[in-house]
């Protein structure tokens, strides 16, 4: 074994994807093998050259005893005989030196998956942790940089001839590694014309990206490495897509890599002309701003959160014999309601659950205390107390039907839950399993809606609440919430008391007026994002103008039942899919 190490820079330089290519430490590797599959053995020779900025820093080359016979065609190809390998060290003796030589550098190889596969298998077999370095494949890079008019193929010998390398490849590991070094430098010299200047850009450029992604890569230039919102805009400045990230620059760059395979995103990138960044104090503010921008502009390539105004409610109508009605808005006069629902189907499923549990009328007639209206089939089937024919008094109807709905939505849904569970048990006992499954889905819809509304109402009734969450680099992420809406956000620096920062946030925060319902000042999705942030174990409540509470006997105590019902519904759907 021969090894020359000189002029090595600080460890870890090659791991930073933003490092310029001239400052990256590369270890260019080539293996000779017995030709079999990577099973932890089979390596007959290792050659590695360490370079940075065009300067050779070190060389490692050694034959390796594979512990098995060498096929004759391998000897003919490489010139390596069994007699040459007999005194050579086994791979388990070579690996520690090679891994130390590789250290934190970037591994380069021609057809890298082959060499990396053998090295990883050897590490796994002999108890060494594979360091998982960044890998640059010169074959893949050549496929992106060189055209068919320049080279007929991307074999190492062809590329070595094209770039006139000092060492010609000859199927010996160290010579092939030296040839690959010159090929790498030749390819790097061509990358500048493709706007590829850093390690991360080179690795992504070598992957299979579309021409549109390659052409529009410049849109990610100059964006901040900070939390916030990014907006892809068209030539006429229309927002095409809005997203959020804890690191805007890194996230936007990912749209121009091989990892982005969504067809609609490819279409969006083709139409995009610039990317606008809105920096935020912390990720919660970024999430909220994203929701508001999507709601305001309805970008065509965003699928979620686009139309918050389409929320629906299930309310109890006025009159002596109220019924359930799906409506788009609720007002101050409405005192019994449930929601908001994201779709009519969800609202109607919850309504069906209440109809299964309570004797609420389902007809849409306006009933009078003086005039009798003919009863429908539901009355004949015993599923309606027939208030239309005055078979029940308004007081009794309120006690049996309306009051349990009001209690279920605002406080305790126990009577509704008990009635639905009893119905499920009766249907299952009669082996009417499909009908029982339908009622179970309705129970889940009722619980999901009541748990959600009571959870939202607990926060939105508070006029002002201040909370703090530890910032990753020290200090505190601060949020000021008014009636469930994020009114202000900021970060107090490390080593400084957060109170002065909170006072500044309060002085400049948005004024939020109280309103009616569980989401009076924001969308339900925004308030739920805030709730998730507030409920994290690390978040501390700093101040609150009122107590943050939920009903003692409220719907939240049925969370376990809701989870069980949802799992059963999901399992049923998975078995029904073809």
Automatic annotation (TrEMBL):
GO molecular function term, any single one: DNA binding
Q: Name one GO biological process term.
A: DNA replication
Q: In its UniProt entry, what is this protein called?
A: DNA polymerase-3 subunit epsilon
Keywords carried by this UniProt record: Exonuclease, Hydrolase, Nuclease
According to the entry, every stretch annotated as the GIY-YIG domain falls at 225-303
The record's section on NCBIfam families has:
dnaq, PRK07883.1-2, PRK07883.1-3, PRK07883.1-5
Q: Name one Pfam family in it.
A: GIY-YIG
* Gene Ontology CC annotations of this record: excinuclease repair complex
């Amino acid at each position: 074994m021969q090894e020359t190490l000189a002029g090595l820079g600080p460890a870890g330089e090659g791991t930073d994807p933003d490092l310029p290519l001239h400052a990256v430490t590369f270890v260019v590797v080539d293996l000779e093998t017995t030709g079999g599959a990577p099973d932890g053995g089979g390596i007959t020779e290792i050659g590695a050259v360490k370079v940075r900025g065009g300067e050779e820093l070190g060389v490692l080359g050694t034959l390796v005893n594979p512990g098995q016979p060498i096929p004759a065609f391998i000897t003919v190809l490489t010139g390596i005989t069994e007699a040459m390998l007999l005194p050579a060290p086994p791979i388990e003796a070579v690996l520690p030196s090679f891994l130390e030589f590789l250290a934190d550098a970037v591994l380069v190889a021609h057809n890298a998956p082959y060499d990396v596969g053998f090295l990883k298998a050897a590490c796994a077999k002999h108890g060494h942790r594979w360091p998982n370095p960044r890998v640059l494949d010169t074959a893949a890079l050549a496929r992106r940089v060189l055209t068919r008019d320049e080279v007929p193929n991307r074999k190492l010998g062809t590329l070595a001839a094209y770039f006139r390398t000092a060492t010609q490849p000859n199927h010996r590991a160290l010579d092939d590694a030296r040839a690959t070094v010159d090929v790498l430098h030749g390819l790097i010299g061509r990358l500048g014309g493709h706007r590829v200047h850093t390690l991360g850009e080179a690795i992504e450029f070598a992957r299979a990206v579309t021409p549109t992604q390659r052409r529009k890569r410049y849109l990610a230039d100059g964006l901040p490495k900070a939390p916030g919102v990014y907006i892809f805009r068209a030539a006429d400045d229309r927002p095409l897509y809005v997203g959020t990230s804890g690191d805007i620059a890194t996230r936007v760059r990912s749209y121009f890599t091989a990892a982005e395979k969504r067809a609609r995103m490819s279409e969006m990138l083709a139409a995009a002309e610039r990317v606008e960044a809105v920096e935020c104090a912390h990720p919660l503010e970024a999430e909220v701003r994203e929701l508001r921008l999507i709601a305001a502009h309805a970008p065509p390539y965003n699928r979620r959160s686009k139309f918050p105004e389409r929320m629906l409610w299930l309310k109890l109508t006025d009159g002596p014999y109220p019924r359930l009605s799906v409506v788009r808005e609720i007002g101050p006069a409405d005192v019994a309601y449930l929601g908001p629902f994201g779709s009519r189907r969800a609202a109607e499923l919850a309504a069906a659950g209440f109809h299964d549990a309570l004797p609420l009328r389902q007809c849409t007639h306006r009933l009078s205390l003086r005039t009798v209206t003919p009863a429908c089939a539901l009355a004949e089937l015993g599923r309606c107390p027939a208030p239309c024919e005055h078979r029940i008094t308004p007081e009794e109807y309120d006690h049996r039907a309306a009051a349990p709905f009001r209690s279920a939505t605002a406080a305790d849904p126990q009577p509704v839950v008990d009635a639905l569970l009893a119905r499920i048990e009766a249907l299952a006992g009669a082996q009417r399993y499909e009908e029982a499954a339908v009622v179970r889905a309705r129970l889940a819809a009722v619980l999901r809606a009541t748990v959600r509304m009571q959870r939202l109402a607990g926060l939105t009734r508070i006029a002002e609440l201040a909370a703090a969450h530890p910032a990753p680099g020290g200090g505190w992420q601060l949020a000021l919430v008014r009636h469930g809406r994020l009114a202000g956000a900021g970060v107090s620096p490390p080593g400084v008391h957060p109170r002065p920062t909170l006072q500044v946030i309060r002085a400049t925060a948005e004024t939020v007026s109280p309103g009616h319902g569980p989401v009076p000042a924001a969308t339900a999705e925004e308030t739920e994002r805030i709730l998730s942030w507030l409920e994290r174990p690390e978040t501390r409540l700093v101040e609150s103008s009122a107590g943050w509470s939920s009903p003692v006997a409220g719907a939240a105590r049925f969370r376990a039942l809701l989870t069980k019902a949802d799992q059963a519904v999901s399992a049923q759907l998975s078995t029904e899919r073809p």
